[in-house]
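Researcher: Structure for this, please.
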Amino acid sequence: MLDLINNDIRLQSFNLGEKFQSASPFPHLVLDNFFNDAFAQKLLEHFPVFDRTNAMNELGLAGGKAVNTKISGLNQTYKELDEFLQSDEFLMFMTIITGIPELLYDPEYIGGGTHENLEGQDLDPHVDFNYHPGKKWHRRLNMLIYLNHEWNESWGGNIELHSDPWNRDQNEFRSFMPVMNRCVIFETSEKSWHGFKKIQFPENKKNLSRKSIAVYFYTQNRPVSEIRPEHSTFYVPRPIPDHVRAGYILNENDVQELKDLLTRRDAWIKFLYEREVRFSSESGILQEKLSHALKRGKLYQIWRRLTGANNKK
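Model: Predicted structure, token format:
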């Protein structure tokens, strides 16, 4: 089954664990030519056509990113990929190169699947949801496979791994282009901040898009020191561009970028506000039920004392 992986990577698998753990800003690996060339090309050739109905973001807004989580039902090539990802051999391979034991495959591909980003798309630095929504497994690894024969670093869209996007002056990050058959694997934790800058193709490349496959792995347990309360994906909106400073004259592109940043920030604030209202409402209902339960319990004890029920055997 592991024949789908490049033989050179399989041969060095036992040496990759230390490289993964020592990487900064957090544990990760970048493996070029991950699949054998023929299979990687088949994944690209049978990649699903962009579907606007699959292009809704976390805020419920239509965008230029199409996601398809029905991997096994796409075609025979992706069914083969799905069978490969859930095989015991591959899960053991992932344990060997990351040091994380007893990894679990997600047949629902929640948040994963095929991802296609069009011109103008970007992804703010974020940490991912930390538990599987249904099974409540701990999310442990992200595996991203890129399928783009043509790419230039100046086009944006390069995956960035950040140390601390909250701290603009001290934030350190590593950047990797999403080139054909490159696999990026990183640990999912409270410090695994990642994203990519806006995709901006030159005029003669507007027909291109950023294609990738995202796969997430879980475990039933994780080290106690790493366990945190359950949360959804959380984003840090990108700051105002460095070149916008006192004395600088804004051009049309600058104005549009600032509008986009503010619109996104406002949408995120609205999302958090609505979630806070929902949580407050649910909390109020629970508190009311608890209060009633406590009152009933107190009245029951009074009744027992009055009736002498406490003295009956």
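Researcher: Any notable elements?
Model: The chain has a mean pLDDT of 91. The first helix runs from residue 7 to 11.
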